[in-house]
Write a structure and sequence with these properties.
Elements: H1 5-19, E1 32-37, H2 48-66, E2 70-72, E3 76-77, H3 82-91, H4 95-112, E4 123-124, H5 128-143, E5 147-157, E6 162-163, E7 169-170, E8 173-174, E9 182-191, H6 197-200, H7 211-221, E10 223-232, E11 239-244, E12 255-258, H8 263-271, H9 276-287, H10 290-293, E13 302-310, E14 317-323, E15 335-337, H11 343-352, E16 360-361, E17 381-382, H12 393-406, E18 410-416, E19 421-422, E20 424-425, E21 435-438, E22 442-445, H13 473-476, E23 477-479, E24 486-489, E25 493-494, H14 496-499, H15 503-506, H16 519-525, E26 528-534, H17 541-554, E27 564-570, E28 573-575, E29 578-579, H18 590-597, H19 599-609, E30 616-617, H20 620-639, H21 641-647, H22 659-681, H23 685-700, H24 710-727, H25 732-741, E31 766-772, E32 775-782, H26 788-797, H27 799-805, E33 810-816, E34 820-825
This protein binds one RNA strand through helix 7, strand 11, helix 10, strand 15 and helix 11.
Length: 826
Amino acid sequence: MDYPFFELEQKWQKIWRQKRIANAPDGGDKPKYYVLSMFPYPSGELHCGHASNYSIGDVISRLKLMQGYNVMQPMGYDAFGMPAENFAITHNSHPRLTTEANITAMRKQFDGMGFLFDWDRELSTCRPEYYKWGQFIFKRMYERGLVYRKKSFQNWCNECATVLANEQVEEGRCWRCSTEVEQKELEQWYFKITDYAEELLDFSDTIQWPERVITMQKNWIGFSLGTRIEFPLENSDEKIPVFTTRPDTIFGVTFMALPPEHPLVQKWLVEEPDNKELQDFCKKVINEDKVSRSSAETTKEGIFSRRYCINPLNGDKVQIWITNYVLMDYGTGAVMAVPAHDQRDFEFAKKYNIPIKVVIQNAERSLKEAEMTEAMTEAGWQANSAQFDGLPSEEGIQKITEWIAENGWGEATKTYRLRDWGISRQRYWGTPIPIIHCPKCGVVLVPDSDLPVKLPENVQVGKTTSNPLLSVPEWLNVSCPQCGEAAKRETDTMDTFVDSSWYYARYADPKNTNVPFASDKADYWLPVDQYIGGIEHACMHLLYARFFYKFMRDMGWVKGGEPFQRLLTQGMVLKDGAKMGKSKGNAVDPQYIIDRFGSDTLRVFLLFASPPEKDVEWNDDALMGAFRFLNRIYRLITGNLEAIKRGKDQSFEPEALSSPFQELLYSTNYTIKRWREDSLSRMQYNTAIAAIMEHLNNCVSIKNPETRSKADLAVYAAALKAILQMLYPYAPHIAEELWQLLGEAKLLHESGLPEYKEEYLVQDSITYVIQINGKLRGKMEISPDLDDEAIKAEALQVENVMRSLEGHEIKKIIVIKGKMVSIAAK
RNA sequence: GCGAAAGUGGCGGAAUUGGCAGACGCGCUGGACUUAGGAUCCAGUAGGUUCACUCCUGUAGGGGUUCGAGUCCCCUCUUUCGCACCA
C-alpha cells in the first residue's frame, strides 16, 4: 500500500495557509530572512524547471523557518514580453487575457507543490500598479542624466514594417513573412549603465556569490586601461578618435579600420550616392547577421575609402579602410591598425597589400616585415619609434602616452567593454515609456500625476504588423503637458529586463500607491539574503539589477550597495541529455507526477538527483526510488507508533542501552551533524538526503522495537523524530503528517532544528588504515587515546603489514591522527 | 577566436582541508516472502586474478610534486554553456 500522499498533502497545504506560516510581517522580534527565486514568465504551465528551482528556494525557506527567522519568500510574474504578444498575434486575442489566465493557473500549481509563497505580496509586472513605478523610476533616471536617445541599427522587416528581435530572425529572414531582414537606423532609448561600470566591477567581500558568476560579470564589464588618440582627417577639421591598449605600437599604424556603421562612413555614404562599390559594401556588411559577422571564421573584408588621416606622432599619411571586422560597439568604434603587432590587422593587411611596419622588436632584434607569417604581439623593444627607440615596450606604453598628452593629441583613459543598455522595444506588451514628443517643446516627460501611462486596452495585436500602439489614435495623440499643443506619445515600450531590475524591492512593499516602496520596509527586508536563479542570467539580469540598486541607493531609497547577498545558480532539468521543453518534445508534466506520487516525491527526486547548482537528469526509475524512500518512512513510523510513543521524550542512561541501540544513538547524532552541515553550510541537498536514507536504513534494521527496554525505546523514538525533522525541508507534507501522528502539538518548523550531542559521537575505538608507499596494506581498531609511538607500534604488528614489509627497509612512518598510518619503505 | 565550467562504475552522483575511491539512490544478479504490487525483506554488484585469503589495475590522456593525488602544478584531448572579432 502506498502512503496516502494526496490526502495528506491537501490537508497540510490547507493548514499552512490557515496558520499563515508563509506570510511574513514587516518587522517583529525575529531576525529577517529574504529568500527570492527569480520570478517566472507566466506560461500557464508549471514545468519541471520551475518545480526544481522553487523546490530549492522552499528548502531554504523552511530551514530558515526552523531556525526561527522571519522568512519572506515572495512570488510574482515577469509577465510582459514577446511570448504573450506572439501568442496574441497567432491566436488573435489580447495578451492581458491570456496572461491573467496563466497566472491563475500557475498559482494553483505552485500551491500544489506546497511552496510557502507569501501570496499577499504577489506582483505581476504587466499590471499598471506595478509598471507605474517602473515609469516613475525611468523619470528619476532621466532627471539624473542616466537616460538618453541615440540612433542605432535594428533588425527591420520592410513587409511587416516592424523591428524584429534576434530570435524573430530566422536565417536572415523575418519569422512571419520570410522577407529578408535589413538593418535600419532608429532612435532608441538608452540607460547609461556605463556610468556605473567602475562600481559594478567592484564585488568586494560583502557579496557572497559564486566565483564563477563574478568572473563572468567582470569579464562582461571588461575594464581596460589604455590611451585615446585623435587622428586628424586629411584636408579636414574632423578627427577620428581611437582607443588602444597598445600605444607602444602607434608608430606602426599603417591603416585606419572603420566599421560601416561609423558616423564618418555614414556621412560619406550620403556624400557619394553614386559610389556603387562603397554603397554596396556597406549595405552588405551592415545587413550581415551579427552572429556570423562576429564569428572568427568570417573572412576579413574591406574596401579602401580613398581617404587618409594623419598619425599625429610622426605625420604619416594613413589609409582609411572600411572593414567588416571592426565593431561600432566597443571603444570609439575605430581601430588604429598595426599589422605588425595585431593578428587581425596582419591578416587584413596581407590580403589587401597594405604596408606592415615593425615597431616592436623581439629579443634578438631579428624581426623583418617581409619574413613575418603572423603578427608579433608580445612585448619587446621599441623600434622605428623616433625618440623612443630602444626602450622596453612596457616603458614605451607609458612614455608615448605621456608624450601624446603633452602635445594634446590624446590622453590616458579607461575603457569598458560594457555598453549602454538599449531599452527601447517597438512592441505593445511592455511598460510604456512615459515620454511625450511635442513639436514645440521636444521631448517632454509625462508628469508624475499622470502616471501610470496605461497601455490602451482596445488593441487587437494581430490586426497590425507594426507596433500596435501606433494604431490607437486616442492613446497616441495627447496635448503637450508643457505648452498644451497637440503632441504624440512615445510608442516604444521598455525592455522587460527593466521590470525585473527592481521587483525584489517592490516585494518589500508591494501595495504602496505613493512610491515604488517605502524606505522603512525596504530597509527592513533588503538586501535579499538568498537569491536563486539560472546561470544564464549571470551577465544581463544580475548586472542590470545591481545597476538599478546602486541608482536607488543614490536616490536614497535603499541602503547598502548590493541587492543580492548570496546567490545560488541552479542547474537545469534535462531529459536524454537535452534541456527539457515542450519544443523538444521531451517535457515531463510535473502535475502528472504530483497526481500519481505526490509533490513530496517530486521534490525529493529533484533535490536528491544532484547538488542544486548542477543539472538534473530526469529518470523515471530514480523518481520511483524517491517514492519508495518516503513510503519506507511512512511504514516505519506508522508501524511502530506505540513503541515510539512509549519511548518519546524519555530520558535514558547511555550505559543502559543494548548494543544495537548504542549504535542507533551514534547514528542519530552523527546523521544530524552531517545533515546540518549539508543542509545549512554546504547547501548540498543531495547528500543531506543521502544521510537521512542511511540513518533510515539503520532504523529499519531494528526489528520488534516494542519488545525493548525503556532506555532503548527512548533512543529509538529520538532516532525517528530526528528523521522527520531532517526530512521536513525536503518533503514537508509527509514529515508534518507523521510528526502529528507522533502526538506532537506544534508544527514541525516550530520544533526547531534537530540537535546532536558531541558526547554521543565519541567512539571507544577508531579504525586506522595502514598504507605502505601509498598503498592500502591493512586496518586496525585501536583506542582513540593512544599516542603516536603506540600507534606506530600497533601498526607494525598488523599481520598483513608485517608480511608486506618483509625484505624492505622502513624509511619513515607518518601518523595522521584519527585516520591512518603511512609507512614509507624501500 | 575569447570567456566560464565540466570529465569518477551500467546510470545519477559521493569523497568538505591532499589521507580507506565509488557513500546514497537507480539498475542488474541471486534468494526469501506474498494480500501479485510501479510491492516488501535479505545478500551481492568498478575491472582483472584467485577455490579463498591475497594481489594487480583503475577517477578523460600524458608528465610532475608528495610518505600519500579524483583533489595541487604543467601539457594534451573531449564535452557543455555564454559571447559583442574587445583593438
